[in-house]
Design goal:
globular; Rossmann fold; 260 residues; 6-stranded parallel sheet; alpha/beta; 6 strands; single chain
Length: 260
């Protein structure tokens, strides 16, 4: 049985993945070290010392947790201070770098990074709502691509760019997937029809396909969103294409086919 580490183990997505895949994989999890603990100790006096102490602590925690793991799923994020509605916590970015560095050093073969649909603006005006958004920068209107929806989206896009950088440093057999997750709720069924909803089985299905993949690029970006569209749409908002052979099956607009 393959062994999978989830960071942010107390969060909704981690609990969903543990529920859905706990019988298939040996799943363990951690909650990331907090800067508050470093500050309470009072041993580091300058901001540089505090940051270095925190980074070392996170690296040690991840190194111990990653030993012998076949996959790491990085979900840990300070969403209290940074979320799509505002704020930015630079420690989120620091932890992302720690995850990449440790996972590569410990030869974890599958590195799954939880990005977000907010890394590129899907809510802006002037776009065809029936043309699925591709998982690559849209440069049709701007050579720099569509901007993020928020500072939270900026951090998630940095995660993706860092993945491109670290993909050049992977050992043979290692692969990185940055997943632009939509809305994963605590319940099997959505609160209502939503074009960004990701069902529990679709969320877990993409991860399992990534873990089991053999012939796939060493770095990929994919949308983690279900196949959501209603009668007023010709198709889903996001293009779920991926190199792992996974196709989302649930649709928040189709009440009759949703899991109970």
């Amino acid at each position: 049985m393959k062994s999978v580490l989830l960071t942010g183990i107390t969060g909704t997505v981690a609990q969903v993945l543990k529920k859905e895949l706990g019988g298939r994989y040996d799943i363990s999890g951690i909650s990331m070290a907090r800067m508050d603990d470093v500050l309470k100790e009072g041993k580091s006096t300058s901001w540089k010392e505090q940051l270095d102490t925190y980074r070392d602590r996170a690296m040690d925690q991840l190194t111990e947790a990653c030993k012998g793991k076949d996959a790491i799923v990085h979900l840990g994020w300070n969403t209290r201070d940074e979320n799509w509605e505002g704020g930015l916590d630079p420690l989120n970015i620091a932890i992302v770098d720690c995850v990449y560095r440790v996972a590569i050093a410990e030869n974890v073969s599958r590195i799954y990074m939880a990005s977000s649909v907010h890394s590129y603006d899907f809510m802006g005006e002037g776009y065809d709502p029936d043309e699925p958004i591709p998982p690559v920068p849209d440069t049709r209107r701007d050579p720099f691509g569509v901007p993020p929806t928020s500072l939270y989206g900026v951090s998630k896009r940095w995660m993706e760019i860092a993945g491109q950088y670290y993909a050049q440093r992977l050992a043979e057999g290692q692969k990185i997937l940055a997943v632009r997750l939509g809305g994963v709720g605590p319940n099997e069924r959505p609160r209502g029809a939503s074009r960004v909803w990701d069902s529990h089985r679709d969320c877990a299905g993409l991860l399992a396909a990534f873990i089991e993949c053999q012939d796939a690029p060493n770095f990929s970006i994919a949308y983690g969103v279900s196949n959501n569209y209603g009668s007023e749409h010709s198709g889903p908002l996001f293009d779920a294409v991926n190199p792992y052979g996974f196709t989302p099956v649930d649709n928040s607009f189709d009440e009759g086919t949703l899991p109970t």
